Every structure is written in structure tokens, then in C-alpha cells.
Amino acid sequence: MGTSISELISEKIDAMSTSERKAAQTLIANYPLIGLRTVAEFSAQAGVSSPTILRFVSRLGFQGYPEFQQALQQELAAQIQSPLNRATIIQSSKSSTAYPLMEAAIENIRETFHHLSTQQLDDATEALSRTRTHVYLLGGRFTDPIAIYMAAHLKIIRSGVTHLTGQESNWRDQLIDMGKKDVLVIFDIRRYQDSLIRFAEKAQARGVEIVLVTDQWLSPIARFARHVIAGRTAVPSPWDSSTTLFLMAETLIAGVTQKLQNSSAERIRDMEQLRDG
User: Fold this and answer.
1) Rounded to whole angstroms, how far apart are CA atoms 180 and 187?
2) What does UniProt give as the signal peptide span (predicted)?
3) Topology of domain 5-79, per CATH?
């Protein structure tokens, strides 16, 4: 699989000018649809000039705007594939390795962390390490186990951690207690879950800082998120792999543990004493 445009942005954003970053942020927040509009429409929404959009596209490595749009169209087609579509594609191709899914998962991890900037991880880790905030975690049909896993670890490290369970109506009830000092971690991969998107929009409207962990095609939740961490999920299977997302969750857990090492060590000691008692 080739490098996605969101990965190219993560890789190159530190070298971009201020106006090019505005273009990048506009694209991420409206991914991929704003990039499928005209240069003039893209530039107007980003609040930059048309030449800036063309320089932004060139910095990503495209020869021109049509080539950039073609890449976005291919990503959009991949984004909406169902497991049945993927099964048909896989059956038409043969793997040269004994364990193709394992090889693909390893490559996904390698490529994800190659394109992911340390600043993205540091910023998300910092948000999760603010002990005065309350951290909420939520996932979709296939990604909620990652949210549960991450919440279980964070609860050991720090106080004020809640995994949102049950139906969408139960999540909405939690909004009454959520505000500007809080952080919401959401896991969402293709085909993106409407209930998660609706909840993220409501949380963002209340000032909640959102950390989105998603795939390389970017959940629509990106438009509401302060932090977007994208990982590769495609493997030779009708089902996407969550291996990379689990590792990103573990990376964030490790980062928070390190930042809160003194208080977390004391908390763990107290917890062990309570268990022994």
C-alpha cells in the first residue's frame, strides 16, 4: 500500500510554512472532500491563496493538483470498501509469504511510526497527563476493546478516567459532566461509525479536547479533534487489523506513565496495599 496523504502531511508538516500548515489543517479537518474541490474553493476555505494550495500539494510530492485529487479519490474508494469488497480483491491476488497477514501487520507498524511525527504523540501524551482533567475513552464496534484496554491502564496510572459504555444515549448522558478541562479519546476506523461522529461533535461543542486514533483514511471525527493519530490497518483479509492501533494506545500509555512517574508510582503502591489488605 502506498503512503496516504494524511501520512505525507504528518511526515512533512514541520517543514511547511504557516500558510501551508493552514492548508494541511483544513484538509485534515475536512478529509478528503475539501481536496476534491477546486483550488479556488480549497484556498477560500483554508483562508490562503491559490498558489499556497499548489505549493502545499507540491510539498507533498505531487506533480500537480490533478494528481493530488486522483490520490484522494483512490483513498476515498478504499475508505468505503466493505469486508465483502475486500474479500473479492484478496481472492484475486496471491501472497508470496507463508504468513501474509503477519507480514502486513508488521509493515503497518513500521510505516505508521515512520510517518507519525513525535510532536503528534507528545501533544496527545501531554493532554492525557494533565491530572486535573478527566479522561473519557470510547470506541466503535471493533475498536472499543482498545478503548477498554487503554482505560484499564490509565486508571492504574492516574485518577479521573472513564470508559464510556452502553448505547449512544448513555454516552450522551455523560456530556453533562464534560467540559473544557476534559479529554475524550476516540478510536474509529473505516467504515466509520455515525454514533461516534455525532458524539464527538457534541463533545467538541462543549469544549472537550478530542484525541482521535484512526486509520490512514481518517475518520470524519478528525474535523472535531485537536489531536489526530493515524495508523495503517489494511491487511490481506476482509477485516482491518487493529494491531497498529493497539500499539499506538500502548505508546500513549507508556508516555503518560513516564510523565507521571512519581505520582503514578505512589498510586500503584497504594493500590497494591489496598489489594493486599
Assistant:
1) 20
2) none
3) Arc Repressor Mutant, subunit A (1.10.10)
